[in-house]
Design brief:
7-stranded antiparallel β-sheet; 1 helix; Jelly Rolls; disordered N terminus
Length: 208
Amino acid sequence: MLLLAALLSIAVVTVAIALVSRDEAPPPPGAAPATTAERGGGAATTTASAGAQVRPTPGNLLQGADFERDLAGWTPLGGASLQRVEGGTSGRWAVAVAPGDAASGPVGPGLAKRGLASARAGTTYEASVWVRATVPDAQVVLALQEEAGGRVASSDMAAYGLPDDGWRQLAVEHRARVPGSSLVLEITGVDLGGDGRLLVDLVDVQVE
């Protein structure tokens, strides 16, 4: 009887050890790593693996921010040309920003969205965007600003380096200061070169 009880106790301990070992086992070879987060330009950046699908978030102040239908409301900056292209990080389409034959003004090639919302003084807005460059070591500058009377009344900017051609989610925040001003988002590329392009997708502007 004592021998049977001892054997049962050993079996229970063995099962418990097996369950703990299974829970702590490393992931199988080839498993996809978790998405990593970096810090740059004072705001969080997130990278996406090839083929990853990123879904729009609720509360976005923008309509058509994934470029699946058209480029309505977006205007080029710095003499750039804008074109919808396949291969977006969310859905099928993204917008490609290509430098023009000659720079136009102090702003680099990019795109802008005006009239996002009527700004409420004291309210913080965050704009996030997925971008990638087709050339290494390019940069992108995000500017979230208020316009009043046809002029920039207040602005915040964030600049990021793009060391490779992977998709990255970048962000910039702005605390509104001028009641009744209009929010504007500008996305510009730097060091794209003659053949380089900046791809933009899934723009999201939220009230913080």
